[in-house]
Amino acid sequence: MGLFDQVLGGALNGLGGNTGGNNLQDVVMQLINNPKIGGLEGLVKAFQSGGLGEIVNSWVGTGQNLPVSPEQLQSALGSEQVGAVASQLGVSQEEAGGQLAALLPKVVDLLTPNGQLPQGGDLMAQGMELLKGKFLG
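^ that's the sequence the OP posted. Answer follows.
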């Protein structure tokens, strides 16, 4: 596990990112890092092109995060992605959608503390900034 994953993992643990046998935070990071998704930028674009731009933009922005329903999430990501998450977690697709709907807004918000996507998809630099803010701020 890389430094960024450790930083994000520690933050997500406080958000209830653990499930029974598998760790929801790991599954969310795999989802974001999935080449089919295209990183954080690809995830945001998937929501925007799925008609959920206002919702995902609220997660990136510095204001309050708008909620997303499991159905909206499945529409944006596709049944295949949500099904893969469900399989990894050992839960139903509906339960996986609910867990993702609860956690993804917080993850995107955490990864975009300045209201902007990391330039060039540089999540490691973003992780270092998070660390600096936690220990030096």
